[in-house]
Amino acid sequence: AMHAVTNRMVLDLRALPMPVVCAINGVAAGGGLGLALVGDVVLAARSAYFYLPFMAKLGIVPDVGSTWFYQRLLGTGRATALTLLGDRLSAEKAAAWGLVWDCVDDEQLMPQALAIARRLTALPAHAALETRRAYDAAAGNSLAEQLAYEAERQRELIDRPEFREGVAAFLEKRPPAFPPR
């Protein structure tokens, strides 16, 4: 039952039409790691760390999407080594390796996360879903397939009012004012 709830939560968060900001203020271990990494922008407090004890301590594979996120964000070599060794990954190293967007001082975590969330509210309403889908497609497509995917999405999105507003804003040298969500 727990896996049904947490797995559904990961999928639901990835399906949200708005960007998801995650702020990690402690340990992201086990299944919590999958929840921590589901965000579109993930910040970690300097004192935070990431930990997959499954194989090294329990003899089982990680769950709740941890392997999916680790492999895509860290690469197979680092993800495999961290899983087999069961070593902790510091927030600073996680940022340097690309697991999270940034590592910030503990007292700046929430102010920074809220500032990023405010910036993201100015995006077009379809930005998060389109971006997630494009990168998910890229993970499984050949270069030629991804070029075709991008061209098709551009053909559809170029007819939307958000594109017209973006072009007008560029020509008028002002920030775009996309319609509210």
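The record above closes out task 2.4. Task 2.5 opens with a second protein, given below.
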Amino acid sequence: PGDLHWTAAGSGMLHEETPIPGGGVCEGLQIFVDLPLAAKWMQPKVLHLDSADVPWRRQPGVDVRVVLGEHDQLVSPLAPPTALTLLEVSLQAGSVFRHSAPSTETRLAYVLAGRLGIGVGGAVRIANANEAIGFANDGDLLELTALEPARFVLAGG
């Protein structure tokens, strides 16, 4: 739980996905990233980051894990073949999480649990559990407010 397993298929890779033995519950996200043209035929490789090695910070009402990329001076030790941000955030009701990213980065917020008000560029959108909202980044600060306790991932690249 909480680990990141990255498979860079590059020129091709076979893999098998095996569920947890004994019928346990497994919660996971699969995110497919289109590699830049120069990396499409690279040798395949696998990267792994244990949960214990993911930088994290707890502030009043906000827990953030920096799985890939960086946030607020926390930097993931994992370097995939293309620059990405992947944050896992838990918010108490009424708490606000702020994140800014380079203007070259498009962002996606996927709500795992709860309900968020997501503000960017002066507009606010609502996202519920199991919904995702994508954003083109105009260099604006992204603000995510928990309308009830919430957990989400913020991805960018």
